[in-house]
Design goal:
The chain is α+β, with helices and mostly antiparallel strands and 646 residues long. 31% of the residues lie in helices and 21% in strands. It has an eight-stranded antiparallel β-sheet. A three-stranded antiparallel β-sheet has the order 5-12-9. It has a two-stranded antiparallel ribbon with strand order 10-11. Strand 2 and strand 3 form a beta hairpin. One of its GO terms (molecular function) is Glc3Man9GlcNAc2 oligosaccharide glucosidase activity.
């Protein structure tokens, strides 16, 4: 098991530094991209291996470099010295003509040659999703690594590909060239792989050796300077280790979470947003699962491949659009914001269609109410049927799904979305009155109270056909399994599950600063028997009957207690907003803000320092990272919390 891996620096475009920690050695991979020609230019990838001081012997390791054409081009291997792949030449429509060169390893950062063994594989692949299988069916133990000054040792390497017995593809054009380069060498060493574009005809020099080192140092210095200018963490007094953590968090998530990325590079956010909205169909629907090609499809469970065009993800992209609008309004003439207005003009027709799809397909049973589609139907197997479309999966909703449900989080998302549409329409000089009326209606605190305030819980809540008297019981016939037992019949009522969903009117700033509901929200948030922990707010109150309860015999609790950084970011952001806005709860919000910000920052950093990873979620009892790792999508929002940029 790796002790840790991830990017330490990455600018999102043309430079990055990554470390991979194994038991006996560390691999540092660095790349630089140099623009030129008509096909994107050149890049060089450098791998440096260093032995850990605690390792008894210098390990011998094998590195494999894959190149595959994906049916849209061709590759040709150029073999030197019997079985060393010196280079690959190729062509594709997107890249034009190109050459990939595999330089021989050198000893550390010196230029002295290093003994190595080489292997290569050249074959055809039926698809990118089959590459690992091809390599696995090509491995052989017969090879010997025999350096002149050390003993011999056997190693596993690619040999002749022996495909399993299966029919030939019906269409041979779907087979693609696949070439693999393997180098086996003893630590320490350094290797470079060069990609050179055929249309880059006036390159100043080859991006390797000393030229690569010089370029890397310039990029590192520029990254450090831009990071401090953007986030100002050193100016806030944060230490070197915390700043290094923050750089890693940013670098690992670039391209994923637009709230952080829009601070770093608004142009990349504009491009990512445009790509998302390019997925809108004529009805305005964007599928929940983005399964782009055979390779992606091979990783997706079968039940998620066929999708229904009434099921969707939360419209969180409006948070990123809201941020781009705010940046434009604050600095309309800045170089980073100037392209936003023409970008929004191009985007606007799709944005209208997308918003209208939500506002017509996700409506609830009462005027101005909303209901997530796509809840699990099999109420017999789930303690509480999941609502994957909400993004909060197993968070407790009405125990018996029905068309009578009203979902408070979706109501608040639509308030945010209509407000953002109002701002965009105003900027573009487009009719905005209808969006503004929708926004004013959904932001009406009296309407929100009427639809979603539970006097019993003294909190905001979903409404639906519900009973709390449910449990999982073992059924022995026809097979032994856990099924749901309902001890009291459901009835139309508020769901009364205190947790993240209850906070949404506060999270998305729907509540007015003088709303008396803020007093109840702040009290529940700060209560250690409900939501408060030393590591962030837990997702479901400890007092709730479903707190940390399994949803099926196979599904562990997910949004029923653990701490999630995306929602905690919204909490801190909202506390910052209400703490800066005049009102009777301003002082309380400001105090909670400082306390919660410190708890989140300290725990996410501490877990990273101890484990080498940023995590999907954090344990509400111990603060320990858990779930998927490394997970630097929304968990990297910790950087914005540290920088106090909301």
């Amino acid at each position: 098991m790796l002790q840790g891996y991830g990017w330490l620096m990455h600018d999102g475009l043309s430079f990055g530094v990554q470390e991979i920690h194994d038991s006996d050695f560390t691999l540092t991979t660095e790349f630089v991209k140099r623009m030129g020609g008509e096909h994107g230019g050149d890049w060089t990838w450098r791998i440096t291996a260093k032995q850990h001081s605690s390792a008894p012997d210098a390990p011998v390791i094998s590195l494999m470099f894959y190149a595959a054409a994906d049916t849209q081009g061709s590759l040709e291997a150029h073999v030197e010295e019997r079985n060393r792949l010196g280079s690959i030449t190729g062509f594709s429509e997107e890249l034009g003509n190109f050459k990939i060169t595999f330089r021989k390893p050198v000893a550390g950062e010196s230029s002295s040659a290093k003994y190595a063994s080489y292997n290569y594989l050249q074959t055809l692949s039926p698809g990118l999703d089959r590459l690992t299988d091809i390599v696995r069916n090509s491995l052989n133990r017969r090879f010997v690594y025999s350096p002149p000054s050390d003993g011999k040792r056997q190693y596993i390497a690619v040999d002749t590909y022996k495909p399993p017995h299966q029919p030939k593809p019906a269409d041979p054009r779907k087979e693609s060239d696949f070439v693999l380069h393997q180098v086996t060498v003893q630590v320490p060493f350094q290797i470079e792989v060069l990609f050179e574009s055929g249309s880059f005809r006036n390159r100043p020099n080859q991006l390797s050796a000393a030229a690569m080192t010089e370029e890397l140092e310039e990029r590192k210095a520029a990254f450090d300077s831009k990071f401090e200018k953007t986030f100002g963490l050193q100016a806030k007094g944060l230490g070197h280790a915390q700043v290094k953590f923050s750089k890693a968090a940013l670098s690992n998530m670039l391209g994923f979470h637009q709230l952080l990325l829009s601070k770093w590079d608004p142009q990349v956010t504009r491009e990512a947003t445009a790509h998302w909205l390019d997925l809108v169909n004529m009805e305005g629907w964007i599928p929940r699962e983005q399964i782009l090609g055979d390779e992606a499809r091979s990783k997706v469970p079968a039940e998620f491949v066929v999708q229904r065009n009434e099921n969707v993800n939360p419209p969180t992209l409006f948070l990123a659009l809201q941020k781009l609008v705010e940046q434009l309004q604050a600095n309309p003439d800045s170089e980073s914001s100037r392209p936003t207005l023409p970008f929004l003009r191009r985007l606007y027709p799709r944005l209208q269609t997308w918003f209208e799809w939500y506002n017509t397909t996700q409506t609830g049973p009462l005027p101005n109410s909303y209901r997530w589609r796509g809840r699990d139907k099999d109420t017999n197997l789930f303690l509480n049927p999941k609502t994957l479309t909400s993004g909060l999966d197993d968070y407790p909703r009405a125990s018996h799904p029905s068309v009578e449900e009203r979902h408070v989080d979706l109501h608040c998302w639509m308030a945010l979305a209509s407000g953002t549409m109002t701002s965009v329409a105003r900027l573009l000089g487009e009719p905005h009155q209808e969006y503004e009326r929708t926004h004013q209606t959904l932001s009406d605190n009296a309407l929100l109270d009427e639809l979603h305030w539970s006097d019993q819980l003294r909190s905001f809540s979903d409404y639906g056909n519900h009973t709390q008297a449910v449990s999982l019981q073992q059924e022995k016939f026809p097979v032994t399994r856990l099924v749901r037992s309902v001890r009291r019949a459901p009835k139309p009522q508020f769901v009364n599950a205190l947790g993240y969903i209850s906070l949404f009117p506060f999270l998305l700033h729907v509540l007015t600063p003088d709303s008396p509901k803020l007093e109840h929200i702040f009290k529940d948030m700060r209560d250690g028997d409900k939501l408060w922990t030393l590591y962030g707010l837990r997702s479901l109150s400890r007092a709730d009957p479903l707190y940390m309860k399994r949803n099926t015999e196979h599904d562990a609790p997910y949004w029923r207690g653990p701490i999630w950084i995306n929602i905690n970011y919204l909490v801190v952001r909202a506390l910052h907003h209400y703490g800066k806005t005049e009102g009777p709860y301003q002082e309380k919000a400001a105090a909670l803000y400082q306390e919660l910000r410190t708890n989140i920052m300290n725990n996410v950093y501490r877990q990273y320092a101890e484990t080498g990873y940023i995590w999907e979620q954090y344990n509400d009892s111990t603060g320990s990272g858990q779930g998927s790792h490394p997970f630097t999508g929304w968990s990297a929002l910790t950087v914005l919390i540290m920088a106090e940029q909301y």
